[in-house]
Design a protein that fits this description.
mainly alpha
Length: 96
């Protein structure tokens, strides 16, 4: 036989402080975890190999560049399979 509604309400009201305490701990805990998971900037953790100045104010577009023009590009990568880089670059260039 189910409990009378008044008894259910009393049971809920008696558990309400415990439920609120648990929810407040859950909210505070989620903020703590989010704060710990946030990335931190460490001084000296990265190296600037090359920097660029802002030339956008001095550049003037005159015409399209010739398709035979050579554009020097320097790419710094730190990963495996760098020996395949040239072949992969040529594969992309040929498909364009």
């Amino acid at each position: 036989m189910p409990a009378p509604p008044l008894l259910n309400n009393l049971l809920f009201l008696s558990l309400l402080p415990a439920i609120m305490h648990f929810l407040s701990l859950a909210v505070v805990g989620s903020f703590v975890i989010a704060g710990l998971a946030a990335p931190t900037a460490r001084a000296g953790s990265y190296v600037v190999h090359e920097s660029r100045r802002d030339f956008s104010k001095t550049w003037v577009k005159r015409s399209n560049i010739s398709s035979n023009s050579k554009v020097p590009v320097r790419v710094g990568l730190t990963q495996r399979n760098l020996h395949k880089g040239y072949a992969l670059l040529m594969e992309v260039l040929v498909s364009v």
